Amino acid sequence: MIRVIVADDEPLVRAGIRLVLSSAEDVEVVAEATDGRSAVAEVRSRSAEVLLLDIRMAGMDGLAAVEELRRIGVRTKVIILTTFGEPEYIARALDGGVSGFLLKDFAPEELIRAVRVVAAGESYLSPSVTTWVMNRVGGRGEGARSARARRLVDELNEREREVLVLLAQGLSNADIAARLHMSEATVKMYMSRLLGKLDCANRVQAAVLAHEAGLSS
């Protein structure tokens, strides 16, 4: 069973998420929170695989909660609930090591899929937000970030670059394995190696770096 905590200051949003997730036999909402501080408290007091976290909340917001969770080193994976108007928040969330971004106008099946993907140790960018995130956060011309990204990518071997390109396109481990004719265990090995070589906390950061290096265009 995948245990989920929902943090949002709008009761109707929390109720809607709970209703959607209750339709999945392998997902259970174990707690709700109305702000970042209570979200952190719930994560610390309960065993949960995934935290669905709104960015904009009164008191401690979602970004502050992400930073606090990173500081205390919890293992719960975080999916940020976002809108198209928050690029600066997304950049900070990426630095905090979140596992995914989901637009608030998500379809029910997308929410369930995102929770399952992140609980399995992968990262999730909804198809409708992937290009927007990459364009807003990564690939900012010939600046220091792009130069650093290209330098790190140049140190990868050919197979590692192939895996990174497919990762940046939003493919899951299973999809990458099928595309490159290798086992999922081998893909996971490459993922672990990539994150280390690229100095990235998770797959989302690696995908952004690939975009900054020009691999995903």
Automatic annotation (TrEMBL):
Boundaries of every Response regulatory domain copy: 3-119
HTH luxR-type domain span: 149-214
Superkingdom of origin organism: Bacteria
Name listed for the protein in its UniProt record: Response regulator transcription factor
Species this chain originates from: Allokutzneria multivorans
Transmembrane segments: none
Gene3D superfamilies: 3.40.50.2300
One Pfam family it belongs to: GerE
Residue numbers bearing the 4-aspartylphosphate modification: 54
